[in-house]
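Lab notebook: predicted structure, single chain.

Context: the supervisor wants predicted structures on file for every construct in the current expression panel, including those that have not yet been purified. This is the next one on the list. No modifications to the sequence; it matches the entry in the shared construct table.
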Amino acid sequence: MEYILMYKIIAFVFFVALSFFMYKQSRTNIKTDTFGIVIILNGPSAAGKSSLQKSIQRLAAVPYLAIGIDNFFNDLFPDEHGTLGVKADADFGNDLRCVTIENNIVSLHVGQSGQKIIKGMHAAIAGYAKAGNNVVVDYIMYEQAWIKDLLKQLQGCPVYLIGVTVPLDILQAREQARSTSPIGHAASHYYSVHEGNNYDLWIDNSQGTPDDGARKILDFIQQNPK
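Prediction complete. Output recorded below exactly as produced.
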């Protein structure tokens, strides 16, 4: 009887130890291959990032969710709140985002409310990716701190940072034709949007079609797995 009791005690202790070990493994050893791929298309307004997004979704062998900065600023609010407008003064403390024009110089501002939206957008992108979804993001880095925060949120995920560029004169022509944002908006961040970024790949979106750019991105990801 004593041997049977001892055997049961040893078996119970072993079971508890094994259960604890498996629990710790499940908490600490999260494999990155369970996370989705994140493609960040960063570039100025009117650079054709949304067209690239659609081509990537259509041509990729696996599904990609499309998330963009305009989804959060424009699509979640009534027009009077979400639309990017022009202000005559610099009192933009609580605004989502706006532009001011002074001496023919267009400047873009993101107020406190807009900064909170950006924080939430980054958390949403990371949430989708860490749940196993592939995500392609239409992004405009208005401030350098933004991309740092996004990459921090995406730690552990395979991330591909793509710089999307178009000559300024082409951007300005597109901006006038589209009439979806104030004239001068694209020029206001044309250079700063790429400042300090270490891109995996550059796409000149004035060359070829969106499908050409999407194939280049998808081929790069296939050849350079993370």
